[in-house]
Specification:
The structure is a homodimer. By secondary structure, chain A is an alpha+beta fold. Chain A is about 30% helix and about 25% strand. Chain A folds into four domains: about 90 residues, Beta Barrel (OB fold (Dihydrolipoamide Acetyltransferase, E2P)), CATH 2.40.50; about 160 residues, BirA Bifunctional Protein, domain 2 (2-Layer Sandwich), CATH 3.30.930.10; about 120 residues, GAD-like domain (Gyrase A, domain 2, 2-Layer Sandwich), CATH 3.30.1360.30; about 110 residues, Bira Bifunctional Protein, Domain 2 (BirA Bifunctional Protein, domain 2), CATH 3.30.930. In chain A, the strands form five sheets. An eight-stranded mixed sheet of chain A has the order 6-9-10-22-21-20-17-11, sandwiched between helices. At the A-B interface, strand 1, helix 3, helix 4, strand 6 and strand 7 of A face strand 1, helix 3, helix 4, strand 6 and strand 7 of B. Strand 23 of chain A pairs antiparallel with strand 23 of chain B.
Chain lengths: ~575, ~575
Amino acid sequence: MYRTHNCGQLRLTDAGSSVTLSGWVSISRDFGSLTFVDLRDRYGITQLVFDADARPELRQQVQQLGREYVIRVKGVVRERSNKNPNRETGDIEIEVNELDILNQSKTPPFTIEDNTDGGDDLRMKYRYLDLRRNPVQQNIIFRSRLAIETRKYLADQGFIEVETPFLIKSTPEGARDFVVPSRMNPGTFYALPQSPQTFKQLLMVSGLDKYFQIVKCFRDEDLRADRQPEFTQIDCEMSFITQEEILNTFEGLAKYLFKTIHNIDLGDFPRMTYDEAMTRYGSDKPDLRFGMEFAYLKEAVSGRGFAVFDQAENVIGIVAKDCEDRFSNKDMKELTEWLQRPQIGAKGLVYVKYGKDGIKSTIGKFYSDEDLQRIGEVCGAQQGDMLLILCGETEKTRKQLNELRLEMGRRLGLIKEGAFKPLWVVDFPLLEWDEDTQRFYAMHHPFTAPKQSDIEKMKSSDRAVLGNLRADAYDMVINGVEIGGGSIRIFDKELQATNFSLLGFSPEEAERQFGFLMNAFEYGAPPHGGIAFGFDRLCAVMSGQNNIRDFIAFPKNNQGRDVMIDAPSAIDAGQLKELGIEVKSQS
Amino acid sequence: MYRTHNCGQLRLTDAGSSVTLSGWVSISRDFGSLTFVDLRDRYGITQLVFDADARPELRQQVQQLGREYVIRVKGVVRERSNKNPNRETGDIEIEVNELDILNQSKTPPFTIEDNTDGGDDLRMKYRYLDLRRNPVQQNIIFRSRLAIETRKYLADQGFIEVETPFLIKSTPEGARDFVVPSRMNPGTFYALPQSPQTFKQLLMVSGLDKYFQIVKCFRDEDLRADRQPEFTQIDCEMSFITQEEILNTFEGLAKYLFKTIHNIDLGDFPRMTYDEAMTRYGSDKPDLRFGMEFAYLKEAVSGRGFAVFDQAENVIGIVAKDCEDRFSNKDMKELTEWLQRPQIGAKGLVYVKYGKDGIKSTIGKFYSDEDLQRIGEVCGAQQGDMLLILCGETEKTRKQLNELRLEMGRRLGLIKEGAFKPLWVVDFPLLEWDEDTQRFYAMHHPFTAPKQSDIEKMKSSDRAVLGNLRADAYDMVINGVEIGGGSIRIFDKELQATNFSLLGFSPEEAERQFGFLMNAFEYGAPPHGGIAFGFDRLCAVMSGQNNIRDFIAFPKNNQGRDVMIDAPSAIDAGQLKELGIEVKSQS
């Protein structure tokens, strides 16, 4: 037997007991005849004492012990003279009388400590050692707990977890598929699912009524820091359901998770239409942890001879409270340059500082102090505040000002640590026009139902009318991050065909790709809808962190590589031959 | 709102309530002014009554209703005059006063009934309709429940569920991998995991201590009836653990599942070594629901001038109780031919019938009645019994006799319905010699630890010695089906290298394929071991069924095809080009 207890378990009440422990040597301190070893496992750290006077036969072995050696000890629990109140086992130590070295360890390439000296690349290559560090291990344990509680809530609500297939059919719509050549059916390919969307809808046609699955999904996209080629969704679908009922069910899930895990009452989620979110925050995932709402100033600033504003489609400002004296001219120049980077692309930044010693502004030439005072009143700026203004085409300006708002929130420290501000964004557009390809794309996905009142308008050929169609689609947003999104689905074959045609599918193409779903709609499809949550992201947001990679046991890097196992890699010629495919030489 | 209650919910105590129900029209019976409709959903069936006299305005709509139409009704619950005791809602019916047809349905290609008229192929093509049938739906719900209870047990035992990656590295050892071409790293491939084996071992190196995952795995094998290219495992691994502790932990899981779900106490599992199982039953997964153990007769039958027996390496019999008069000469001929089919390959079948009117045997020419009586005594045959004997090379004969034993068990109805007979088979061989390739393969997998006492023998070059090495490997068997298997793992780099070399890996090959694991072993790998259960098979066995396909929502057929969605299928030339691969023309 390797252990009677784990390394986080023993307390003062165990004093006098004979125990066996196993674990890793975390730290070893040699004080001549006494050697203290911190023995570590998943559950905690227990102090071992080797007394060379009492057990001279252990002396030699103890001296061999290096960091991360794996050992088993037998000994007696005793009270510590020098207690450690920061450790749950801090009242006791083990007086060791038997020691087995179970495995040795080379010196790890970085320290196994909360604040390691290992860089990102090294920690990825030795991910199995990085996972030994407490903060990383706790993330993985947190993820497991979150999955358990999610399943508990959904099962209690009558949801059935159904596993949908991974080897499915490629559908060019949406992101790129990963494909899998079929050996038994040469020349053909499976695709890995980008989501179980069509299968969960088929399960509704099957009458499963309430489905969920915590499931891996795959997208072959060029990766950003917060994207992974494989990621996990909490995927849900319900039948005979209204949007209102779906929002309540999954608001309930979020409330349950925050209450159970963080003991935080989220309260009822505010709801905001897409239009309102864009108008007030320039984003469909506004961060409500701070204010700084958009003020529309076009009217207030027009007619003073400042051509830039006069000619702009829109002029929008935000008020940064009590900070007019915190930004020097140099700071403002740097902030302007930050906004002018291609990622944001603002032309320039106008500011008005409402200082104690008067008003300072980049547009003082065109506007009198009275004008600026009046503009300040329009947007609620008071003495001590700074007004930041962008102008131009409405949609672009909103996006730029959204970036500026978030940046100001960060710079001014307006985001309280541990605060969680959820909301629902509803009434998303059905379609989104793409200038490059000159066609509409589905804003959510092609199965999303238009609002009942907008169905007639789908017959229009007016791009403006089509662009304004609204869908029964909704996103759950927490702290400015889209945690989940979903929609009421189309369940009528004709309406689905109309939607495919708006998305540029020929009837043949729609039939080829989604014929099975449209056929299913002919056999009594119920009204249904659902939602999918990004599970990796939910883990990160609930932990107040940004990087989803920290919550994935074995993540891929930005090139889609697993540097630990060295994948992807070349495969044998024999494998390729069996699959009936050839690698084209790279030119 | 679509419903206030589901179709399995209302009882007599609800009489008088106004309710809204939605569901599918299961049956509609028209009795002139009264029409009765059975409304069905996942939860049950509720009877609706449309009274044409009271609600003439509904008459026309009601007449339109066809099978599988989706409707919503509002009405009042009332007591039924003609109660249906076989249905939980059988005491009530709904007097309908409002009807909405939510969706129509074409006539389904087969009846949505427990005993459908649909053939296998048709039901697969319309799997979403097959899943509407109660027995199929219940299988899927059973699976969901089994997953919930499995997770509950393991989480309560301190196991952490960790998601391991799906896009990993191809390793030619074992079954064929499905591979995934990488677009971002042209010319290279990911592989889909055949199991998370190496990752769970790395998690043990990471100190996760107790890992589990219910996870999809992939094997590109030629399919048999009970195999699927994608299948689900309950995958588990533990550190600082002995085989004994693993067996107890997972015997506990099986007991918990049977108790919770079936209210069956399995009792303690018998344990049998591989050698004993092969000796007594000719199988490493013996079905203990009936006896008929092997009797070794070589000694008893030798020296009577019957060359077939005299020259055979072994002569083995089984006794079929009380059935000497149940098999005619024709039956025996048919049974012999059954044994001689190439799948089994027996040369012939010898029998001795111990009848009331004397002994009848195919070997009466060589053996006197006294001889046969004595042979009967050796194997415990009594008057009324039939002794069936095969002979030849020991291993082959055992396998053939195992088939005969199972067949006799079925034919004689010895297998009691609802009986569950579990056992552990332990001490499997480490290596298995393959005549075709003239090399050893790992009987379990290359990471399995040899028994401590056999480690020295691994240095031998004697094939017989190596073939007799025993491993700390074990299978859980229930009713003759291998439900799960696992082993204690090697956690020492040198021993792992020795094992790879016995398996014919060059050091370079081992390094290329498993270098990351062997490197991990150098940084303090703990002793560890684990097990994996076939979750699809566990579902089937616990339900007393054979076909795992019935427990998979969307299974593939024997050609690896999903005939419902038509996958695998051709993909766009553009996709292939992006991936840098070409389909070779089929010659």
